[in-house]
Amino acid sequence: MPGQLDAAIDPDLGHHGDVEATEGLVDLAVNVRRAPAPPWLADPIAATLTDLARYPDPRPARAAVAARHRRPPEEVLLTAGAAEGFVLLARALSEVRRPVVVHPQFTEPEAALLAAGHRVDRVLLDPADGFRLDPTRIPADADLVVIGNPTNPTSVLHPAAGLAALARPGRVLVVDEAFADTTVVPGVDGEPESLAHRRDLPGLVVVRSLTKTWGLAGLRIGYLLGEAPLLTRLAAAQPLWAVSTPALAAATACAGPAAVAAERAIAVDLAADRDHLVARLAGLPGVRVAGRPASAFVLISLPGADRIRIRLREQGWAVRRGDTFPGLGPDWLRVAVRDRSTSDAFIEVLTGILEA
Q1: From CA 122, how far away is CA 108, in angstroms rounded?
Q2: Phi first, then psi: what are they for 354, rounded to 5°?
Q3: pLDDT of residue 9
Q4: Which CA distances in Å does 341 have to 104, 117, 295, 344?
Q5: What is the fold of 13-34+260-355?
Q6: How would you class 114 by CB atoms within 10 Å of its CB: exposed for 0-12, middle for 13-18, buried for 19 or more?
Q7: 23, 43, 84, 234: which sits with the fewest CB atoms below 10 Å from its CB?
Q8: Any idea where the domains of the chain sit in the sequence?
């Protein structure tokens, strides 16, 4: 396949952090916040459980999400998690000739494209440059471009201007913002570098998830933002009633002012916890933190990381292996940001392994 690695060493695109988070281990492999849902979210979800005989009605949730992003409802498509959005894009856009996925990033977009029969090119970002995007590296004839912002697993936040420069007539630009609500820049209101409000960019599709910050991975709720005609095509590939009534209640609640304010407060606290983890990691011999982390996880490289991951498991800690992400390899690990006491305990265990 053009742009692919040799098939014999191609990463396992179907591997995800939940496989690593074995029960009984401290989970630093999955990027889902573990705090209990606040009442304004838990109560509406629970209230739907007495009314499940009725088919889901997505219209109120769609309107709420549209209002949050200052868009008309026809520019919102609710999905069963962000992952369903990638499947819809891959299946509905059968005419795409040259899809390009920017790596390292979440592997489901490429996996969905391959499953739908597309030939995929990869643009691999350079770790020596902090995994920063150079827009000129995207082939001019690419008619579908997929990139994460902030990117999983690198935690790099790309400038919105650079991403916007990739949009053009005849191209679908897919920006995965599943972790956009985890980012914060002092003195900047809202989500820095997000394109969710941009209605002027041709072919832009922004993919959002509500499962990370609010701990709803088991509920499956996300949405797409984009031009109405394009979303209509994607909706035609979606099963009827794809999003459950409890998930729709969650979408409505998470689009409200209380949720947006809470997200910003959580992002501020997360940034402080992330800075603490990065500082502790940077003090370990042989450990290099990739780029400038901006999200709920940190990517690190260290010699023998594949073996160290096994040692960590033996001592009760789960971290995400890096070799299943295109562009990385066995010397990379992704570590979720948790509270400072958890990070400190992890550092102590990792230090012992490195010194052994």
Answers
A1: 14
A2: -65, -30
A3: 54
A4: 29, 46, 19, 5
A5: Aspartate Aminotransferase, domain 1 (3.90.1150)
A6: middle
A7: 23
A8: 13-34+260-355, 39-258
263 with 208: CB under 8 angstroms? no
pTM for this predicted structure: 0.95
CA angle 89, 109, 200 (to 5 degrees): 55
Which pLDDT value is given to residue 189?
85
> How far apart, in whole angstroms, are the C-alpha atoms of residue 154 and residue 127?
9
Q: Give pLDDT < 70 ranges for the chain.
A: 1-9
CATH class of segment(s) 39-258: alpha beta
Q: What type of residue sits at position 172?
A: V
What's the pLDDT at 187?
Answer: 81
SS3 per residue for the chain: CCCCCCHHHCCCCCCCHHHHCCCCCEEECCCCCCCCCCHHHHHHHHHHHHCCCCCCCCHHHHHHHHHHCCCCHHHEEEECCHHHHHHHHHHHCCCCCCEEEEECCCCHHHHHHHHCCCCCEEEECCHHHCCCCCHHHCCCCCCEEEEECCCCCCCCCCCHHHHHCCCCCCCEEEEECCCHHHCCCCCCCCCCCCCCCCCCCCCEEEEEECCCCCCCCCCCCEEEEECHHHHHHHHHCCCCCCCCHHHHHHHHHHCCHHHHHHHHHHHHHHHHHHHHHHHHHHCCCCCEECCCCCCCEEEEECCCHHHHHHHHHHCCEEEEECCCCCCCCCCEEEEECCCHHHHHHHHHHHHHHHHC
